[in-house]
Amino acid sequence: MSTEPSAYHRRVAEEKRAAILKAATGLFLASGYDGTSLAKIAEVAGVSKATLFKQFPTKGALFDAIVTESWQVEDSGGPEPSVEDLKTGLTTIGHRYVELLTRPGMTALFRIVIAELPRFPELGEAQFSQGKMPYFESVSRYLAAAHSAGSAKVDAPDLAATQFLGMISNFVFWPTLLLPDWAPGQSAIEQAVDEAVRTMSARYGI
After folding, report:
1. Which has the closest alpha carbon to 83: 134, 148, 135?
2. What Gene3D superfamilies does its record include (predicted)?
3. Same domain for 100 and 44
4. pLDDT attached to residue 74
5. CATH number, position 26
6. Residue numbers of the domain that contains 24
7. Mind giving me the DSSP string for 52-112?
8. 56 exposure class (CB count in 10 Å sphere: 0-12, 13-18, 19+)
9. Does the pLDDT of residue 165 top 60, yes or no?
C-alpha cells in the first residue's frame, strides 16, 4: 500500500501552507515579528497549531519560508534570457526583476525586516542569504555566461550585476519604503529598464 500522499492531500497541504504564509506576513507587519505568536498565526490562517508546527516548527523557519517564496522567480513560460544577445537578455531579466520587486507584499517584507532588525538581526540575514543573494547570483551567472559566449566583456560579473539591478531597484523599489504613494507608471518603468539595459550594453557589450 502506497504511503505517498494523494493529489488531494497534497493540494490541501499547499493551500494550508499558503494560508499560513499569508496570515504570518500580515500579522508580522501589523504587530511586528516579536509581537506575533505562532498560535495567533494558526488562528488567523484557520489551521490547527499542530498543522502549523508540522510545517513550521519555529517562527524563524516560518519567516525563512516567507522570504524564500517572496524571491521565487516563477516560470512565465517565456524565453530564457539570451546569452548570445546581451541587450535582449538583459531586457528579459530587467522586466522579470520589476515583476519581482512589485509583487504584493515585497515592500511589506522589507519593512518588517528593517523594523525588527535591531532586536532580530537574523531576519536581515534571512532576507539577504535566502532571498536577495540567490537572485543576485543568478544574474551574475548570466553575465558570466554572456562573457563566455562572447556577447559581452564582463570581467567582474558580481559588480556588473550590482550595477544593473541597482539601476532598476533604485527607481522601482527603494522609494516605496519611504514614499507610500510611490507608484511610477508602466511607461516610466519601461524607460528605467531600457536605460539600464542601454547603460550596461554601452559598458559591457561587444
Report:
1. 148
2. Homeodomain-like (1.10.10.60), Tetracycline Repressor, domain 2 (1.10.357.10)
3. no
4. 67
5. 1.10.10.60
6. 7-63
7. HHHH-SSHHHHHHHHHHHHTPPP--S-PPPPSS-HHHHHHHHHHHHHHHHTSTTHHHHHHH
8. buried
9. yes
C-alpha cell at 95: 522586466
Domain assignment of residue 72, yes or no: no
DSSP character for 47? -
Three-state DSSP string of 123-186: HHHHHHHHHHHHHHHHHHHHHHHHHHHCCECCCCHHHHHHHHHHHHHHHHCHHHHCCCCCCCCH
User: Could you give the number of structural domains in the chain?
Assistant: 2
Both 52 and 147 in one domain: the answer is no
CA–CA dist 66, 62 (Å, integer): 6
- Rounded CA-CA distance 49/39 in Å is 6
pTM passes above 0.85: no
Give, in degrees to the nearest 5, the angle at Cα 111 between 109 and 115. Answer: 125
- DSSP-derived letter for residue 45 is H
169-184 pLDDT, tens digit each = 999 999 999 998 999 9
